[in-house]
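Backbone geometry tokens:
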Amino acid sequence: MPTTSPTTALITYSNMQPGDSVTNSITVTNSGNVQLRYAISSSATNADSKALKDQLVLTVKTVDVTTPGTPCNDFDGTQLYTGDLDSTAGKLVGDNTQGSQAGDRTLASSANETLCFRASLPLATGNTYQGATTTATFTFDSEQTANN
């Protein structure tokens, strides 16, 4: 049975100032011996009562086109998602419903791909969010492509 690695990833954002952005790369690996498709969902929590998660804008892209050897350095890959940190129904990329869904990503057996996650705090954000912290949990759900 194909599975992705990681199945979940946590990223914490804290002490951001208006106009700041934080970029992280996550390498998704198909550890199985058949092709799979996967979707990414998210949920975010606030470590405090400031609701930073509702202010951040998340953008997910494929690995850099200009410098693929330095993933996410130029942040110029294909855009897969932009919007809330924990989007509507938590769906960021694809859909974890069984079967092929719009936006699902495919990976050959034993292959991997690097995705770039950037959270930005808009310049217009007020001082209320200074010193705030939020943690996002990204979940990677997968299934084999054959017979699904």
Summary: The chain has a mean pLDDT of 89.
